[in-house]
Amino acid sequence: MSGTQFALLLKRRFLPVFVTQALGAFNDNLYRLALIVLVTYRPGLSWSLMPEQLIAIASGLFILPFLLFSAAAGNIADHHDKARLIRIIKLAEIGLTGLSGIALWIEDPVLMLIALFLLGTQSAFFGPIKYSILPQHLGPRELIGGNGLVEAATFLAILLGSLIGAWLVARPGGKEWVIALMLAVAAGGYVASRAIPPAPPQCDGRAKTTGLLREISEVLVPALRQPGILWSMLGVSWFWFMGGVYVSQLATFARFVGADPGVVTLLLAIFSLGVGGGALLCNALLRGRVTTRYVPLAGLVVTVAAVDLFISAPEAAVDGPLMTAGAFLSSGYGLRVCLAFSALAIAGGIYSVPLYAAIQSLSAPETRSRTIAANNILNSLFVIAAACWSFFLLTAGVTIVGLYLSVALVNLAVTILLWVKLAR
Hints:
This protein has 424 residues and is mainly alpha-helical.
């Protein structure tokens, strides 16, 4: 690799995978946010449920396939050409996007949820491949840079998909634009996947189906028996736990400090761009070496930033007009919040990328997809745990800044543990 990690964007062995992944992440969030906005502002779509309850169901249906099918996806990916599998998955995405478009067009909540589950399923099958294919196409000293680019693009795609989906569907004729954009992006993802170089299987034999629960066990147990991989996976899963708490509760936080929805968008942008920026910084910090040396330091920065949010928080703003994004930024506290979220997000990017690269480099080539599938299963469990953690603490009367502080304090313990287990 010459120059910086951005030289990889000129390589066929990286660029098509990079584009395919980014477009898929964009499409998932474009549809998910369009669905959420429709449910929120069209109460008739929610049956007898509150909109927030249906949104929670939708979030659960999207994450459920990662628990159910990641093991099977990893098993299949280890036994077949990964480039060919990606093309099959992306071709299926075009059909699923069409189904999603029909659901949006007729505003059928059952069909919308079914489509969301199926989109989650195709993402679950793509998940183990997108990370296990990188070590086949990249050199050992390119893994940090490649993972940083993928992570940055993923968070940017999530941000843009969320913002555009929410904005478009709320406009007159917006559903038609969302549907057209989804189909165009899905087609673009398939076209990009056609350029991915072959990535033949690195293990012998054929994939064997042993049943859902047993297959999950057969993927998880071997990975959990390898300390370096185990602690790296737990570190990544904790990153998703923190993101699950901080990002999912941004609207609650904004309302607590007396800010309007524009501030939610502002903080979401800061968080997504911050994680992406931190991910890109990793290559410069580590100079291409796969090492977790900066993970504990990044974890410590996350804790300090979250503690600052708690210390500087004003009293809950119950009454009065809500602050716009401009008013929020012009206030001393608002600027401090933005700086704290920036530090937290950048540290999160520096924290997560080396852990992903460690999982890839420590995994045996013949079982790498299954190891990454095990990581995806753990990630999903931690995301669900984050939702439960938030629900129970907020229900018990803990304020949103108190919730953020609780995660920061646990993160301090996790950081110390990872420093002991992974310092190298």
